Amino acid sequence: MEDREIHSNCEKYNIQNYTINNGLIDVDGDVDLYEKGLVELPLNFGEIRGGFSCGGNYLTTLKGCPKRVDGDFSCPENELTKLDYLPEFIGGNFYCRFNQLKTFTNLEKCWLVGKIKCNGNPIYEIFRLFEDKDWNIGEIDRLNMLIKDFSLSELNEWLIEEGRKPVKELKNYK
Question: What span, in angstroms and rounded, lies between the C-alpha atoms of 167 and 130?
């Protein structure tokens, strides 16, 4: 994308205080792309020194998302099934509510300072069992492995290890 087109898109989406670095947009402040009717992100972002919101659109991929977000990263109410292209660093909370996520694959590659908010996704039926948990990379990896080859007995073993009550069934997760 040429600089002229980048400037035009920044103006169109009211993105201010930005610099262009090798085709990536760094922003000193927040980026708000909420409910813009997007099917893909209009720019490729680098670092956001604030929050980043791309919720309420029709995104099926996070391609073009920032590499780093110092505040909250919010992508709810889209059509995401995967977390490819997730930022490498999120300094606040990660909001991915009301998508179609069945796994957290690639979340283990993200340094997340805050909490994960994922209700309204197929994965939430499992995640809610651990909702107040402070997750680490190994545990996200374990969750992804559990989901890949789903086993209720393995889920219950983990719940018991955590001092939580086992479940008899999951009604919505498939």
Answer: 12
How confident is the prediction along the chain (174 residues), in pLDDT tens digits per residue?
889 999 999 999 999 999 999 999 999 999 999 999 999 999 999 999 999 999 999 999 999 999 999 999 999 999 999 999 999 999 999 999 999 998 898 998 999 999 899 999 998 988 888 877 877 778 888 888 888 888 889 999 999 999 999 999 887 665
Single pTM value for the model = 0.90
d(CA 54, CA 76) in angstroms, rounded, equals 8
Distance CA 172, CA 119 (A): 12
User: What radius of gyration, in Å, describes the C-alpha atoms of the chain?
Assistant: 18
Whether the CB-CB separation of 113 and 92 falls below 8 Å is answered with: yes
| Distance separating alpha carbons of residues 124 and 131, to the nearest angstrom | 9
Q: Which residues pair with 25 in a beta bridge?
A: 20, 45
Query: What dihedral angle (degrees, nearest 10) is formed by the CA atoms of 100, 104, 107, 109?
Result: -130
Distance CA 97, CA 56 (A): 10
**Among 79, 77, 78, 52, residue whose Cα is nearest residue 65:** 52
Distant-in-sequence, close-in-space partners of 163: CB < 8 Å, separation ≥ 6: none
- Find tokens 């559990």 and name the residue: 146
Q: Are strands 18-21 and 24-27 parallel, antiparallel or unpaired?
A: antiparallel
